[in-house]
Amino acid sequence: MSPVMLELLINAVEETLLMTAISGLFSLIAGLPLGLILVMSSPGGIAENRWVNRSLGLVINGFRSLPFIILLVALIPVTRFLVGTSLGTWAAIVPLSITATPYFARVAEVSLRDVDRGLIDAVRAMGASKLRIVWDVLIPEALPGILSGFVVTLVALIGASAMAGAIGAGGLGDLAIRYGYQRFETVVMIEVIVVLIVMVCGIQWLGDRIVARVDKRH
Q: Measured between alpha carbons, how far is 22 from 104 in angstroms, rounded to an integer?
């Protein structure tokens, strides 16, 4: 590999990690509260509200049903308004965050629903507030599943960030398209694939270790 190509590859890895980290953080900050609202407002939940539950679920399902490449193009005006451009790494973070948030919200919802109902009822019987139930029961008990879901979300974001390279978002996808596909450099394509596999395996391995540490069931 030439020094120039090595530098391009390193820059592409940094851009991919930046897109994944920031959009992943946003999905965690926004997606977890959405998952909590879905669980709390569901029938039999601690703050049952069917209108809120159905409305929010409809919105989340609507965004989840859109293929990322379509959402990427549809959000170009929004992206341009927020960051001043529709190209580059920071521009890609906007659609990546929006597509990852509803995905993680549903993953978090599944983990939160698995919390022992008897435990929740016992805490409610002792007079605990809804906020106390969330912080002392729901989140701690569902934490291993939430973290596992977050790792899956990060892995999905790596793939989506590579797809965003199709419209000049930067990162490994952009490198693979511009230098591997358009210039018929098969070696570049192979190098990008190998790097992506290593990144995914590394994130999954680290995530599994963290989950194992916080999982009180083992």
A: 14
Model confidence, pTM: 0.87
- Residue 47 in tokens: 């703050």
Joined together, the tokens standing for residue 205 give: 């391995």
Q: Which residues contact 169 (CB under 8 A, 6 or more apart)?
A: 19, 87, 88, 89, 91, 92, 161
* Six token digits for residue 203: 């994130």
173: phi then psi, degrees, rounded to nearest 5: -65, -45
Quickly list H helices, 48-138: 50-64, 68-74, 76-83, 89-113, 117-125, 130-133
Q: What six digits make up the tokens of 101?
A: 């948030």
**Comparing C-alpha atoms, which of 4, 3, 39, 8 is closest to residue 170?**
8
CA distance 52 to 46: 13
Supply the DSSP symbol for 88: S
For residue 104, the one-letter residue type is F
Distance CA 115, CA 137 (A): 8
Contact, 186 vs 192, CB < 8 A?
no
Q: pLDDT (tens digit, 9 = 90+) per residue, 62-93?
A: 988 888 888 888 888 888 888 887 778 888 88
Q: List C-alpha distances in Å: 61 to 12, 45, 56.
A: 32, 20, 9
Cβ–Cβ under 8 Å, residues 89 and 171:
yes
